[in-house]
Design goal:
By secondary structure, the chain is α+β, with helices and mostly antiparallel strands. It has 2 domains: about 90 residues, Phosphorylase Kinase, domain 1 (2-Layer Sandwich); about 180 residues, no CATH class. The chain is built from 8 helices and 11 strands. The chain has a 7-stranded antiparallel β-sheet.
Length: about 280
Amino acid sequence: MNIIVNHNFQYIKLDTSDLKKIGSGCEGNVYKYQDIAIKVHDDIPIKKTLSQKLVKQFKNIDTKRILLPNGLTFEKAGIFLKYVGYTTQLISNKLRKERLIDLDSNHIYDEIQLLKNDIKLLSENKISVDDLNSKDNLVFNGDLYFVDPGSYNIDNGNFNELYTKNMDKLNYALYLCLFCLYNDSNYIMYELKNINGTNIENINYKIVPLIRNIYTKYFKNEFLDKTNGNYIEAIIQILEKHDSILNYKDKILNDFVNNSNEEVEDIKTIKKILR
């Protein structure tokens, strides 16, 4: 497919068959060109896509971590150009999302502040965010990014109401990526293998749901309930007390097994892992 990318005031002619595909989804495909990610919509996308009008509105808003379109993508149709998508900043040197827990607390705190600033800026520009809680829309390369603004829209309502709604979505997204980690067993297995003193031979997937429940209950009782359900505030309180999320989770599990009098098989397995 021959496309024309309007990026940084230049028109660049490209053939998608010469480009590396780096993603695909309900809206279309994403290709890599130099430091640009190019979204090309399917002819009949499964879900609603960003209109050319919205891309033009979004592309001049300078967010740092919640990435917006920065250019337009066209297909030549006779003498006309047909809008087929948009471009965004390409995030290079991606890391496994599990490694989020390795970040030190100061770095996580700085990332949270940048994300909160983005939410404020987006709300000021009447943009309603969506899909932040999708694992596929989180990109980690040592810094934390949210990509794929295809479901974002304009909300001309009250600023305070929009800001609150957008912050609620960021709140929950950060909780998912730093604590529940999308209910993905691989994340918790990664954590266990990186806790000091872990006996890897004793790790098995059967205890993952139990460990996830331990994390969730402890986080809720110790922090979330005390901050009236404000995930970000609860996370910041944790960061003030611990060097990293991994250290925090290590403490949770050790406290749990040390204070548990139960001798059921799963508890004994966790004790073996942490010995």
